[in-house]
From TrEMBL:
Protein's UniProt name: Pimeloyl-ACP methyl ester carboxylesterase
Source organism: Geodermatophilus africanus
GO terms under biological process: glycerolipid catabolic process
Superkingdom field: Bacteria
Domain AB hydrolase-1 residues, every copy: 23-246
Length: 282
């Protein structure tokens, strides 16, 4: 069960499960702890998984004033500090991946590694226009269901729409008691419209895996590739046939991918320096 923890100036709804190396999960627009359910269930046998509701989403309130990616990165840092976690593998998707970038830039001490799903360095005109469309759609859609049905056309694959996976997701969102207001979603989206980490990404030193859905019409693979090319040593993988949120559509495949990456990072961090290893072998 989750609980509110005092993190900075906010009471942030946080859930923590499992045992092992620490992982922090950062959601995208309007998404809450529940968006990571397949990871909380599927990886808790190997990691201590922490997820939280961003400001203005779910059970975390939206303070007055503007919202920025930097501000939300500080929220994420405050969660780790409040829980006494010295460093964690950090995974974020969509807007959450931008928050994760900022966390790695602002508090590198807290970031053991980065997984950036459906990410970008700066919105190109296409992605920016799409985000402005979503900002408009949430205001004018005749019902919440109509908004979700339209919005999710660009988030999930045709496969997930046709096999009723998306319909089940929508039913879950509609039944969720802690609804995000249209205004709070718009303020969240505004934080990313002109946000640009292009020139600062080379400063990220954490081992990084960038994942893109090969069929994602929004955060397209070329945008993820630009992030990976800018971060020293970053790995880039395209999940063919997948869209914006493969961690929900093909969670077993996604979990296996990030688990292999985290295991590799842990092995590298636990290995003694090469000179010492060579000396001991002699």
């Amino acid at each position: 069960m989750g609980e509110h923890i005092r993190a900075g100036t906010l009471d942030i709804w946080t859930e923590q499960v499992g045992h092992g190396p620490d992982v922090l999960l950062i959601g995208g627009g309007g998404d809450t702890v529940e968006s990571w359910q397949f990871q909380l269930d599927g990886l808790a046998d190997r990691y201590r998984m922490t997820a939280f509701d961003n400001r203005g989403a779910g059970r975390t309130t939206m303070p007055d004033g503007p919202v920025t990616a930097e501000m939300m990165a500080d929220d994420a840092a405050a969660v780790l500090d409040a829980l006494g976690i010295p460093s964690a593998h950090v995974a974020g998707f969509s807007g959450g991946s931008i928050i994760a970038q900022e966390l790695a830039l602002r508090r590198p001490d807290l970031v053991r590694s980065l997984v950036l799903q459906s990410t970008w360095p700066v919105m190109d005109p296409y992605l920016r226009s799409w985000l402005l469309f979503v900002r408009w759609l949430v205001e004018v859609a005749p019902t919440e269901r109509a908004f979700l049905e339209g919005f999710f056309l660009d988030i999930y694959t045709a496969r997930a729409h046709n096999d009723r996976t998306v319909a089940a997701f929508i039913d879950g969102v509609l039944a969720f008691p802690y609804k995000q207001s249209a205004g709070d979603l718009q303020r969240y989206l505004d934080a990313f419209l002109d946000h640009d980490t292009t020139d600062r990404l080379p400063q990220i030193s954490a081992p990084t895996l960038v994942l893109a859905g090969g069929s994602d019409p929004t955060a397209r693979p070329e945008l993820g590739r630009a992030v990976a090319d800018a971060i020293p040593g970053a790995r880039f993988e395209v999940m063919a046939g997948e869209s914006h949120q493969p961690f929900q559509e093909v969670p077993d495949r996604w979990n296996a991918c990030v688990d292999a990456f985290w295991r590799e990072v842990e092995a590298d961090l636990d290995s003694p320096p090469r000179s010492l290893a060579t000396a001991s072998a002699l």
